[in-house]
Amino acid sequence: MAKIGKRVVKSREGIDVNKAYSLDEAIKILKDRSSVKFDETIEVAMNLGVDPRHADQMVRGVVNLPNGTGRTVRVAVFAKDAKADEARAAGADIVGAEDLVEIVQKGEINFDRCIATPDMMPLVGRLGKVLGPRGMMPNPKVGTVTTDVAAAVKASKGGAVEFRVEKAGIVHGGVGKISFDAKALEENVRAFADAVNKAKPTGAKGVYVKKVSLTSTMGPGLKVDLSTLATA
């Protein structure tokens, strides 16, 4: 059995694993207990009452966090001609067409998010086995297959976070950095939770959101009181 480090033990001291903390209290605990030298990511995980094996219970979407993610996102855009120029002007890190497809096919993925214009999808479709497992395949449902590449690039750079339910019914995503002030983190968490709630599929029955927890990269996991997640 792996030995639990002293820092982890200390971060968990006094934590009641059965208690549902209010959102502001959970954020305060994580911020107060951060003792590492890097800027930890704050992540929210939502346990949903869905079975994603059924198409009508799939949960997927994108949310634009009001205060950004705090991380630098490298964006690649599959586009040609004027749309390629628009993407570059909007700040895309990598822009290309057939040449970019070839690069990705070789396993060179030097980006975090992928956008494509509709006319490029027959080409990009060849990359399903490469981009799909990484959750990076462009999809119109989350705004990454679009003719408005400038807006998509700016959203990706500014704080757009994609989410997709996993096999166990869990949706999770990074919602900021430990260095963010508490109010900014609260707003981001609520925006994420609201987006997941709005993405409730038609096939979901019974309780949709079962449990929500908040954690930092090196911090404890804290159960959050669902009633404190509602947006004003």
From TrEMBL:
Xref: Pfam families: Ribosomal_L1 (PF00687)
Any one Gene Ontology cellular component term annotated for this protein: cytosolic large ribosomal subunit
GO terms, biological process: regulation of translation; translation
One GO MF term attached to the UniProt entry: rRNA binding
UniProtKB keywords: Repressor, Ribonucleoprotein, Ribosomal protein, RNA-binding, rRNA-binding, Translation regulation, tRNA-binding
Keyword field contains Lipid biosynthesis: no
Entries under PANTHER family matching the protein: 54S RIBOSOMAL PROTEIN L1, MITOCHONDRIAL, LARGE RIBOSOMAL SUBUNIT PROTEIN UL1M
Annotated function: Binds directly to 23S rRNA. The L1 stalk is quite mobile in the ribosome, and is involved in E site tRNA release. Protein L1 is also a translational repressor protein, it controls the translation of the L11 operon by binding to its mRNA.
Family label: Belongs to the universal ribosomal protein uL1 family.
Complex and partners: Part of the 50S ribosomal subunit.
Name of protein: Large ribosomal subunit protein uL1
